[in-house]
Amino acid sequence: MLIEENFSLKPHNTFGLDVIANLKASIEQTEDLEELFKSDKYRTVKKMVLGGGSNVLFTRNFLGMVLKMEIQGVEVMEEGDDSILVSFGAGENWHQCVLWAVEKGYGGIENLSLIPGTIGAAPMQNIGAYGVELKEVFHSLEAYEIKTGKMVRFFNEDCKFGYRYSVFKGAQRDKYIITKVNLRLSKKPSFNISYGAIKETLESMGVEELSLKSVSQAVINIRQSKLPDPAQIGNAGSFFKNPVVENGYFDSLRAAFEEIPGYRLNEEFTKVPAAWLIDQCGWKGKRLGNVGVHDKQALVLVNHGGGKGKEIINLSMDIQKSVQGTFGIQLDTEVNII
Ligand code: EPU
Asked: pLDDT band at 236, cuts 50/70/90?
């Protein structure tokens, strides 16, 4: 296993922040984890797992060891008439897995096209976009339990998936390292194009008959038009989660702000788009030094180049304060802050 010292994380975080990890190990197989966690030299060193680095904000150098997840492999485990169970190595690139499924005619993840990152990170926060969440196709995962050194399997219900949430962000945080993700994909896909922009985009593309490819391409087009490409401008997608407020409170907001959008989740709660709240507070397209708010999607904070993690944090706190002040709503971060 390759272990490097004073490793630059700049190419390994999509914010493009110029930080260093004391140590970095490339994890290409589960045995590498055993070797590390049993080694006298490295056992007690502080560690963090890094996939594609697309959902982290480094505020300083990492004083420890970064485990770069590089376990590869795509394997069909089970095939029936209607569905197929596929196992993906945690280090596989998420979007490449989507393209593979689309190409093979397996449905279920086409709406999740172009989400950056690795497949091992996908269950951590139950990635979602355009009306679909990972949990709808997730079968199980395999993970290395740090305390015992054993491999453990988590089925869908064990992960307690919620909106941008799983047990790996809660009670089981930092206790496991995901090595494989198993998805059940459909051989008879049904398309989910209910999310407004998809239908319009398919129309503007001149698509008459739906296919996995056309839906995937529509999502790619929407994302490319709204979200900045990290290769060009540093960002980690949505910086905040969409807040959930009590229905009564939402109704009082609507009385004051007629235009406020909201999606009633149930009899108790309504989800409000954070982007709208931030936009209303005048932040969209604003720039403070090297960092700022994306000009096409107010939920995305960007590093224009040379920005520091601390600058992004300061900007995010200013945004939180103004949304709190105007709407009385607390915005929580979606990105992991290190
Ligand atoms: N809006 C504004 N100003 C903006 C952008 C949006 O007012 O600058 C309002 C509009 O009313 C719009 C609403 O916000 O209808 C919702 O915006 P959008 O449909 O773009 O989705 P979102 O809620 O901002 C979520 C996810 C995205 C995902 C999209 C599409 C979260 C935190 N974000 O964004 O996920 O791509 O839906 O499904 O749930 C990510 O997690 O990194 C991410 C990009």
From this structure: very high
Within 191-290, strands assigned E span 234-238, 244-246, 263-264, 269-271, 287-288
CB 14 within 8 A of CB 52: yes
User: What tens digit of pLDDT does each residue of 256-291 get?
Assistant: 999 999 999 999 999 999 999 999 999 999 999 999
Residue from 114, 238, 300 whose mutation best tests the ligand 1 pocket (most atoms within 8 A of CB): 238
Measure 227 CA to ligand 1 centroid, in angstroms: 10
Who lines ligand 1 at CB under 6 A? Answer: 129-130, 227, 237-238, 241-242, 261, 273, 275-276, 279, 284, 297-299, 334
Question: Ligand 1 centroid to 120 CA: how many Å?
Answer: 23
| Domains of the chain, earliest start first | 3-69 (3.30.43.10), 74-186 (3.30.465.10), 234-337 (3.90.78.10)
pLDDT of residue 41: 92
Q: Which residues are catalytic?
A: 164, 238, 334
Q: In whole angstroms, what separates CA 245 from the centre of its chain?
A: 23
